[in-house]
Amino acid sequence: MFEIPLAELVLEKLNRDDKTPLQRQLYQIIHDLINNGKLPPDKKLPSSRFLSKEAGISRITVSLVYERLVTEGYLYSREGSGTYVSKVVTPLVPSGNAPVMKSWVYSERGARLLLSESSPPQPKGEFVPGIPDVSEFPFHIWRKILGKYYSKKYLHLSGYAESGGYVELRKAIAAYLAISRSLQCDPDQVIVTFGTPQSLDLCTRLLSDSGQQAYIEDPPYWATESVFEAGGLKVNCIPLDEEGMALEDGMIAANGKFIYVTPSHQYPTGVTMSMERRETILALAKKHQLWVIEDDYDCEFRHDDLHLPSLQSLDQGNHVIYFGTFSKSMFSGLRLSYMVVPPGLAPAMRRAISNLYLPGMLQLQAALAEFINEGHFYRHIKKMRAIYFERGALFRQRLKAVFGNKVTLSQGNSGLHLMARFNTLLSFEQFSLCARRHGMIVRQVKFHKPTEHGLCLVLGYGGVPTRDIAGAVDRLQQVFIEGERGLFFSGA
Fold first, then answer.
1. Peptide bond into 219 cis (omega under 30)
2. Rg (CA), the chain
3. Backbone dihedral angles phi then psi of residue 406, each to the nearest 5 degrees
4. Is there a contact between 383 and 454 (Cβ–Cβ < 8 Å)?
5. Helix H segments across 48-164?
6. Domain 381-490 indexed as CATH 3.40.718.10
7. How many beta carbons lie within 10 A of that of residue 468, not counting itself?
């Protein structure tokens, strides 16, 4: 059977007049050709150099698309041989005489979700943001407690979870927050969820309608915009200044619904919201009847001397929904998070989470309750707070020593990451291609309203052992050297 070369298929489908970036168009073209069976399993793809030349696309663009498809399992590489279509991908086209589906069958909302930024493809490595150091976690204790609840003695924990989560865990969370964050909450206000994105999705589904508006920080946490848009909301990105989100009365529309903020340690810039700005946010929420979602994602690892009260503890109008997670304090794959909701909202929220998700994993929740109540959680937090403080200080020191005035670092000494703006001509795509050769995966800071030039990255140091910090920064410098040398020789 005669086969049309991939380069010709790409040229046929590329629309250079479309505002959609060529990288995204190329990804979708190859993705669809695999799913509709036109690129069958074990089919060898042309080299990035050849396809770049034939299709008139930069080689970096082709290489990044190939790498993404390899990461997602659509392609695989053979060293010294090339890139092939994966055997494990099942084409979407039915066999026989069944009609062929259109190549793009998703809703407009679904399309935005699938093409939006996603989580890092690997859970560890140099500079992957948001990843804690699991080598220090007391797994021997955790395994013993977990094993206890996965025995026949606790068969009653094998069903679905009701009432917003295991009651002993909700009690433990409420007691912990009362001490650590001065939150005033009853266990009935605590809703256990499986990850912060689920918490956000639940709020979106229960508390808003399609077409209403949400106000988030610029730059935002990567998942927030995706979840809100997937729920049909219009997202407004509000710029930050040194005091936090600069939201003003005139910016809020009549159909506004949510204000989403990370006031303790803004992700990704590290800005701490001022007391005056916190009061402004609460006043705006009361005036316009908005829900404020306060995401306190890494509250356990604040090192700054200034400890401002949470929005939830300041709220007098029952407008604040507080988010917390164990993914940063314990390990990311745990996927246990929680919300603290206003008392009047709690019954509806418990029913909604049961109707939508049928949550379970009560054994896991029971084990976590015991882990907290026996003091293991606090001891682990105390230990890791000191480690991350030392690690962050060393990381900052080494970055300034190696890059000097070519790098500007975010303020603050909290959390597991920092934001770094590099004075370089490299684009993120060019930098990322070089970084992957060194096993580094970093996230770009994406401002919706850019105000400065340069390459802005989120660099995670939580998962980098202290002894490896210096060498990791040296390798980061090597990535820039290689990238800028290639840029120079390419004449770009």
1. yes
2. 24
3. -85, -5
4. no
5. 48-55, 59-71, 108-115, 139-149
6. no
7. 13
List of residues 6+ apart from 392 with CB closer than 8 A: 303, 413, 415, 418, 461
In the block, tokens 């074990």 appear at: 42
Question: 6-99 adopts what CATH topology?
Answer: Arc Repressor Mutant, subunit A (1.10.10)
User: What are the Cα distances from residue 203, in Å, to 198, 206, 321, 422?
Assistant: 9, 5, 9, 37
On whether the pTM is more than 0.70, the answer is yes
The top-level CATH class assigned to 137-378 is alpha beta
Q: How many helices (H) and strands (E) does the chain have?
A: 16, 15
Q: Which residues 6+ apart lie within 8 Å of 223 measured at CB?
A: 119, 196, 197, 200
Q: Does the structure show a pLDDT above 80 at 215?
A: yes
Strand 82-85 relative to strand 44-45: parallel, antiparallel, unpaired?
Answer: antiparallel
Lookup result for tokens 């927050």: 177
Assign 126 to helix, strand or coil.
Answer: coil
CB atoms within 10 A of CB 492: 12
In terms of Cα–Cα distance, which of 464, 202, 483, 236 is closest to 355?
Answer: 202
Give the residues across from 443 on adjacent strands: 458
Q: How confident is the model over 246-285, as pLDDT tens digits?
A: 999 999 999 999 999 999 999 999 899 999 999 999 999 9
Q: Which residue has the tokens 């066999």?
A: 95
User: Which residue shows structure tokens 């800028």?
Assistant: 484
DSSP 269: T
Dist. CA 202–CA 81, nearest whole Å? 47
- Output the CA–CA distances (angstroms, integers) from residue 286 to 211, 291, 315, 450, in the order listed: 21, 9, 10, 30
The full set of domain ranges for the chain reads 6-99, 137-378, 381-490
Q: Give the Å distances, CA to CA, from 241 to 70, 246, 266, 451.
A: 39, 7, 11, 11
